[in-house]
Amino acid sequence: MRVDAVLDGLADWAHHVNWIYFVSIPIFTGVIGWLINWSGLWMLFKPINFHGFRVPGLREIAGIMPRKVQEIPGLMEGGVGWQGIVPARAAKMGSIAVDKVIAKLGTPAEFYAQLEPDQIAEHIVNVFRPDLPQLVHDVMMREHPRLWRDLPKPVRQAVIDRVQAQLPGVVKTITDEIGVHINQLLDPKIMVIDHFRKNPELVVRVFKDVGQRELNLMVAFGFIFGFLLGIPVAVIDVTFEIWWLLPILGVFVGWTTNLLGMWLIFDPPEEKRILGIKVQGLFLRRQDECAEVYARIIADDVITLERIGDFLMDGPRGDRTRQMIATAMRPAIDKAAGPLRGAVNVAMGGRRYDSIKDSFAMEAVGRTITPFRDADFSKQQSEKIRVLIARRTKELPPKDFVEMMRSAIKEDEWMLYLHGAVMGAAGGFLHVGLFVWHWIPGLPGH
């Protein structure tokens, strides 16, 4: 009897439903779901730099606002506008990348050893050798031009030849010294964070190159999730026939659509079996493939021999690097002077000789490290870096791999969900305006 009553009730409900209106709701929520995820990706990655305007006093007001509000890009700088969440969090992405992957390569000394310092030394010698005669000439002409001009040409050439003969040993000493002190000279974390902060477009490239397939799926599934969620929404709406119900339910649909999209990509990190079906975040299923892409970007653009050279010379500890190289050069200059040293001391005095030695050492510092900045040589070495980073990234536990990629947006995901909720509500109002208040007579609320 109860079953008959339920069936009769359903039949009566179906008889009074305007099926055009009913079907329009899940189609509408599907389209809105697609738009939510598409525009959500835009919010994630664009614009690269902050676009908006400054409001006097807003920075001070932002300082007393809730932490979640302070996280809105640009607000803490007193700006009203937008910057993509990922580029806005570029420095944080760099920090996590170091902690999760690069730090696992070992200490800077171990990392430096993988770059084969002997090859680096050989390259420095090859690049430096042709410039050496001119360097000796320039230093002597600056420090004691008269003596240098008065020296017979064979004697001048003998000095240059001895310096050149000492060069491989000197450079080997320098690269060895860099290796010994690299833990104090090189800070990979500062180097990576600084590079990501200055080049936020690189972080966007990491996301897009590594996970473009999953991001496209997220947009496509926006329609599917929106459509499926729209079916119960349509049932509720046509049952209660209250015009403001659809916008409220739209908030739920929009929020949930974005939530499901993020879940689809990142959760669960570990493979699970539910009713015999493999369940795992789409991004995690391609960890090995993504690791290769990620490693290539880091090796080609972030941790390069070229950038290591820049950091050693111009980074926060650059003065220490220069002093260390100069100190290593001075004994070699004494050896190069050889039997001429006594005559030079007599002619110029000990202080003058020391001044020439110091001048030559400091001049040689920049030229010694310059080959680090050789783009072609750096590219050759990048393959070693790529292999190292790819191997470590593949070895990461899935949970750490997800955190490495998701960390830049994790704290800001609420903005995506809120954006989905607002768009869902707007879609609900739009549907009401089109179908209830506008041109279809006989519908609920008309």
Automatic annotation (TrEMBL):
<protein>
    <recommendedName>
        <fullName>DUF445 family protein</fullName>
    </recommendedName>
</protein>
<feature type="transmembrane region" description="Helical">
    <location>
        <begin position="215"/>
        <end position="236"/>
    </location>
</feature>
<feature type="transmembrane region" description="Helical">
    <location>
        <begin position="20"/>
        <end position="45"/>
    </location>
</feature>
<feature type="transmembrane region" description="Helical">
    <location>
        <begin position="414"/>
        <end position="440"/>
    </location>
</feature>
<keyword id="KW-1133">Transmembrane helix</keyword>
<keyword id="KW-0812">Transmembrane</keyword>
<keyword id="KW-0472">Membrane</keyword>
<feature type="transmembrane region" description="Helical">
    <location>
        <begin position="242"/>
        <end position="266"/>
    </location>
</feature>
